[in-house]
Write a structure and sequence with these properties.
CATH architecture of the largest domain: Beta Barrel
Domain TonB-dependent receptor-like beta-barrel: 374-875
Strand content: over 45%
Number of strands: 48
Number of helices: 9
InterPro entries: Beta-barrel_TonB, Beta-barrel_TonB_sf, CarboxyPept-like_regulatory, Plug_dom, Plug_dom_sf, TonB-dep_rcpt-like
Largest sheet: 22 strands, antiparallel, barrel
Shape: globular
CATH class of the largest domain: Mainly Beta
Region (Disordered): 319-341
CATH superfamily of the largest domain: TonB-dependent receptor, beta-barrel domain
Distance between the termini: 49 Å
Domain TonB-dependent receptor plug: 118-239
Keywords: Cell outer membrane, Membrane, Receptor, Signal, TonB box, Transmembrane, Transmembrane beta strand, Transport
């Protein structure tokens, strides 16, 4: 195979100079139609080929093209323009502003040269990341997309171990690992982290978008349709394609500051502030600076480099009043005294590069390095409640440790363990692309990415060891992915009204490791079995958890795109993949679009999809030592191949499968106004979830299973299993109006997603589903609520904006619909209930987070030719989620996932944030 590929590549290089004499240098300038200013960074591409360039800082370009070639000029925020070369050697272009980019040429979802957004067969959103980032204090890409794209969802986690430190988003209410992420059309690797405790998307991994600097991104294309047949595993909900910048001879630098001013819930203002750690009146202070510059290489090559640094502080949120007579008050939160977001410091460098080697062959590469150090508070340890978690003398007296253990006015002592993570991410992609023969395009690439996620315990104790050691190496995990692709495509102009054939093959190698922590992070040193073992907050991975697993994936696809007539488009894709750990999968997709009129299109799609169980889910292992009365046992998350898992009757993990269908329309009644409406249904079978814990002492379980647990000294165990079938139904709506009158610009953008998910079936293993109690243990009512709460039933945004010359003012109203989440309950019932304060009986432990509107305000002004300033406020009215407690059962307040005043819902709980950003273009 390698020899054959070498021969193909050699032949391609021999053919590259054959048409040089037919090409000529085309130059020109691109300007803005409204203000007549030049536009740097405009993308110019020869239609039907991979040859492209961009305008320099003076708006000028140069590209080789033949008389019959067509040049496509596109830039985020402007309507694309196509020009035929003919006899011209100089072509000047004027681009008209189209802020919503509804006529932008998109490359995702098609293997042809790209289509205008309103004329694609499936819905695609385009997000101008630079503009979106400039009008908010939100720094992470995931957080920005949460407010910019209707069906993208993100819940900032708090008090949930490593999930506090990664940014995992979802599409259309599905899991983080059911959305495929691409960079420049190439598969992005996932994080090594697995969401296990205290988080939405439990049992999932996904792509951590915070490892990609926003300043390196030209635009983000979001394909809102199942695309496994086109791109492979993980594309059940859709595809996010991040397109990196290609600008040259232009230096952009941006600096920003933001901070939260929340007098309503800032712990500093509590009547019992001495019970809580806290910062100042403004907390969560964050600074960010990024720089981007592109070097021109030869006539048409470029190297674009981005560097980014950001640092953000912790937030502290509690209910202020603890007076029992106040209906809005809650008790002192002893479960998690330091409740809020963690802090982080992040540095990233990214690059994007293309170098034409000849008229028909281009070398390209991109990638980067990211390091993120974070720390977040775990749940509080309180001496009066659990003295076994504290370092004590032989007589049981507390050993005080300055700066870690604190005393409260009511005579208790506590400490708040810190979970630190070091998240290192490295990626590099390189390849050759070009054309040969009769306009056949080819692309040969190799893409490698790795993520290392390392845990540490800080300001905490292994109580069985004593008070001297307060920092622990808890171990962690690493994931590597290497993907090699060879793709071919050709457009046949004379077949019907145009026919594009694409086909190719992919080989992917993946490796997942778990490495253990230092001995003190997990070992029990107390022979009497009294003191708690392991690093409090996050016990370290044990040597028995260590994993080094890999797998290989082969795949091939064929993709047909046919313009049956000038009005009727059909897409048909098929993909076959083989995984060496579970076998074959075949996916197919059919999509079509019909132009009823020049401004009204109907589009629809049907297809099947799949998501391979990740290596993380197959191999994840975690062990916590439990000591009771000198009896040492283990709480185990057992990997899929473990004897414990096999004894439980859980089969090998297999792929999740999906069936999806979509139907919608696009309508442009007038040039300034566009409408897109798309309905969808997604049925997923055999979704992988993490089960609850089964005890070795449970007499209702099959003895063969409990005996296996006891033989391995495991007190309780839980597993990953293909447990759930779900159905998502939804509707996406985008309305966009843009009008320029003289020096005045008017924009009104509405985006909305309305969705409903149902759990159709739970696939109980025979041994673990014999009784209602066992079924509730396997997948509890609480876990079902978390699956359904991946997205609210409704989310929509209204963004009016006005501009006059160099000044812009805008508002953004974002509505997050109702979400329901169960608490832990008090353990008296298999279902989550808590006792009423008045003793009248149990109440359902159900938290209703009603719909709320978050209002943002921003002002932007171009000070001169090189400088711009933007300032404003996110959540200017300081709106918060409803409090997470049961009315009539305040004694069980904070019985939720983060042990805070509210759960991690999409709008967040930090309140009002002010920000200012300054940008320079040189």
């Amino acid at each position: 195979m390698k020899k054959q590929l070498s021969i193909v590549v050699a032949l391609l290089f021999l053919c590259t100079g054959m048409v040089m004499a037919q090409k000529k240098a085309i130059t020109g300038t691109v300007i803005d139609g409204a203000n007549k200013e030049i536009i740097p960074g405009v993308s110019i591409r020869v239609k039907g080929t991979t040859l492209s360039t961009s305008t320099n800082q003076n708006g000028q370009f140069s590209i080789l093209a033949g008389p019959a070639d067509q040049l496509i000029f596109s830039y985020t925020g402007y309507t694309a323009v196509t020009a035929t070369v003919g006899t011209n050697t100089k072509i000047d272009i004027t681009l008209e502003s189209n802020t919503a980019q509804l006529n932008e040429v998109v490359l995702i979802g098609t293997r042809s040269a790209g289509r205008v957004k309103l004329e694609t067969a499936v819905p695609v959103d385009i997000v101008n990341v630079s503009k979106s980032a400039a009008t908010t204090g939100r720094m992470e890409l995931t957080d920005i997309l949460n407010y910019a794209a209707p069906s993208f969802n993100y819940n900032k986690q708090s008090g949930s171990d490593g999930a506090d430190h990664v940014e995992l988003g979802t599409l259309r209410g599905l899991g983080p690992d059911q959305t495929l992420v691409l960079i420049n059309g190439k598969r992005r690797h996932s994080t090594a982290f697995v969401s296990v405790f205290g988080t939405r998307g439990r049992g999932n991994s996904g792509v951590d978008l915070s490892t990609i600097p926003t300043a390196s991104i030209e635009r983000v294309e979001i394909l809102r349709d199942g695309a496994s047949a086109q791109y492979g595993s993980d594309a059940i909900a859709g595809v996010i394609n991040i397109v990196l910048k290609k600008t040259v001879n232009q230096f952009n630098i941006n600096a920003g500051y933001s901070g939260y001013y929340d007098p309503t819930f800032n712990s500093k203002n509590s009547v019992v502030a001495n019970q809580y750690p806290h910062g100042g009146s403004i907390d969560g202070n964050a600074v960010n600076i990024d720089a981007n510059y592109g070097f021109k290489i030869g006539k048409e090559g470029f190297l674009n480099i981005t560097a980014d640094y950001s640092k953000s502080g912790k937030t502290y949120r509690q209910v202020h009043d603890t007076t029992t007579s106040d209906p809005k008050a809650l008790p002192v939160n002893t479960a998690r005294r330091a409740n809020g977001d963690g802090s982080s410091e992040n540095g990233t460098i990214f690059f994007n590069n293309e170098i034409p080697l000849s008229a028909k062959t281009t070398f390209y590469s991109f990638g980067g390095y990211s390091y993120k150090g974070s720390d977040a508070y775990a749940f509080s340890r309180n001496f009066l409640a659990r003295p076994d978690r504290f370092p004590t003398t032989s007589t049981g007296a507390l050993i005080p440790v300055d700066g870690i253990i604190f005393n409260t006015p009511n005579g208790d002592s506590y400490y708040n363990p810190l979970i630190e993570t070091h998240n290192t991410d490295v990626s590099f992609a390189g390849g050759l692309k070009g054309s040969f023969g009769d306009a056949w395009d080819w692309d040969l690439s190799n893409n490698t990415g790795s993520n290392n996620f390392h845990f540490y315990g800080e300001k905490t104790f292994n109580a069985s060891l004593g008070a001297d050691k307060t920092h622990f190496d808890d171990g962690g995990s690493a994931f590597l992915q290497n993907t090699t692709n060879l793709n071919f495509s050709k457009h046949f102009d004379k077949v019907l009204s145009g026919f594009n054939l694409g086909f190719g093959a992919e080989y992917r190698y993946e490796r997942y490791k778990i490495f253990s922590g230092e001995e003190a992070s997990y070992k029990n040193y107390d022979p009497n079995g009294v003191k708690a073992a392991g690093s409090q907050g996050f016990p370290g991975f044990q040597p028995g958890d260590a994993v080094n697993a890999n797998r290989k994936v082969f795949g091939g696809f064929v993709d047909f795109e046919v313009d049956i007539t000038k009005k009727w488009l059909i897409d048909f894709a098929n993909r076959l993949e083989h995984y060496n750990d579970f076998g074959y999968n075949f996916s197919t997709k059919f999509a079509t679009r019909y132009k009823l009129t020049d401004n009204f299109n109907i589009r629809g799609s049907v297809g099947t999809g799949f998501r391979a169980p990740s290596l993380q889910q197959i191999n994840y292992s975690s062990t916590f030592t439990n000591v009771q009365g000198a009896i040492i046992s283990e709480v185990k998350i057992a990997p899929n191949y473990s004897p414990i898992t096999q004894a439980a009757g859980i089969p090998n993990l297999k792929q999740e499968k999906s069936k999806n269908a979509g139907l919608g329309f696009t309508f442009k009644p007038v040039p300034e106004f566009s409408i897109t409406v798309d309905g969808y249904i997604i049925k997923v079978t055999d979704r992988v979830v993490l089960s609850g814990q089964f005890s070795a002492d449970d007499t209702s379980l099959d003895p063969s299973f409990t005996n296996a647990l006891k033989a391995l000294h495991v007190g309780s165990a839980q597993f990953f299993a293909n447990a759930v079938n779900t159905t998502n139904r939804g509707l996406d709506v985008v309305l966009d109006y843009n009008k320029t009158i003289g020096d005045n610009r008017y924009r009104m953008l509405f985006t909305g997603n309305f969705q409903h998910m149902t759990i159709d079936k739970v696939n109980y293993p025979p041994i673990l589903g014999k009784t209602e109690t066992l079924q509730e243990t396997f997948l509890s009512s609480r876990e079902k609520k978390f699956i359904l709460a991946s997205a609210p039933s409704a989310k929509f945004s209204l963004n009016p904006e006005y501009g006059h010359k160099d000044f812009t003012a805008g508002l953004r109203f974002t509505y997050f619909g109702k979400v329901e989440i169960n608490g832990y309950g008090d353990g008296s019932s298999i279902y989550p209930t808590v006792p009423a304060d008045n003793g009248s009986g149990p109440l359902p432990d159900l938290y209703n987070y009603n719909g709320k509107v978050v209002s943002d305000l921003y002002f932007s002004c171009k000070l001169n030719k090189i400088a711009r300033i933007t300032l404003g406020s996110d959540n200017i009215f300081n709106v918060h989620p409803d409090l997470g407690y049961i009315k009539g059962a305040k004694g069980f307040a904070y019985n939720n996932e983060p042990a805070g005043p509210f759960d991690a819902v999409q709008m967040g709980g930090n309140g009002r944030r002010f920000f200012v950003r300054v940008g320079l273009t040189l």
